[in-house]
Design brief:
The chain has helices at about 20-35, 65-75, 90-100, 100-105, 110-120, 140-150, 175-185, and strands at about 5-10, 35-40, 80-85, 125-130, 155-165. By secondary structure, it is an alpha/beta fold. It has a five-stranded parallel beta sheet with strand order 2-1-3-4-5, with helices on both faces. Helix 1 (about 20-35) packs across helix 7. It is globular, with a radius of gyration of 17 Å. The mean pLDDT is about 90.
Length: about 210
């Protein structure tokens, strides 16, 4: 059984030496430097198909998704999704990860109640890689992950956006997204997270005095 302090890093690009992978490895390095157990996985190794007909007799694709979702995603305390931006959205592999989860939290799955309970309370992070540098290029993905976090009563801690076209070029982005990704990995499980409602009790200041 994996530790409850694990961080799972999911790469939605098929390129092992691409910009998404570079940011993912920076997240992994930061997490391990902070003492967390980090595991990096490429979604291409686990996904062989998309969500099928959502009926009780639907047979999921014969691939390794069940292993990834049930044995790695559910036990993780924190998950960072690392995706390139394709047509101003997340990669098909990343989207399929979310879609395929329905197979296991649907009431047609015998252990769906346990799955639903274990999907909640996680801490999420996101890295984005795109050719464009303008701030709005990835906001659709940010919103989608934010809504997934709220849906599952989880915390969307933060995201990093880096620009580059050639493989590894994101390291030359003057905003230094590689360092930002390393910080995201290091602090994913500790950074304060607030999402106030009108009736949320809160103090008069955000940060404690030094």
């Amino acid at each position: 059984m994996n530790s409850s302090h694990d961080i799972l890093i999911l790469v939605g690009s098929p390129r092992r030496d691409g910009n998404s992978a570079l940011l993912a490895r920076a997240v992994e390095e930061g997490a391990r430097e902070a003492g967390a157990s980090a595991r990096l996985r490429f979604l291409d190794d686990y996904l062989g198909g998309f969500l099928g007909d959502r009926t009780s007799h639907s047979v999921p694709p014969q691939d390794r998704y069940a292993e990834l979702f049930l044995e790695e995603f559910l036990p993780a305390a924190g998950v960072v999704f690392c995706t390139p931006i394709y047509w101003y959205g997340m990669s098909a592999q990343t989207k399929a990860f979310f879609d395929r989860s329905f197979t296991y939290y649907s009431d047609t799955y015998p252990h769906h109640a346990d799955v639903l309970a274990r999907m909640q309370g996680k801490r999420f992070g996101l890295t984005l890689a795109s050719e464009e540098s303008y701030p709005g290029v990835g906001l659709g993905i940010v919103q989608q992950l934010q809504e997934f976090a709220r849906y599952t009563h989880s915390a969307f801690v933060g995201y990093v956006h880096g620009s580059g076209n050639r493989r590894g070029e994101v390291a030359r982005d003057p905003r230094d997204p590689v360092a930002a990704a390393r910080r995201l990995g290091a602090h994913l499980l500790q950074w304060p997270y607030t999402d106030y409602r009108i009736d949320t009790p809160r103090g008069p200041q955000v940060w404690a005095s030094p």
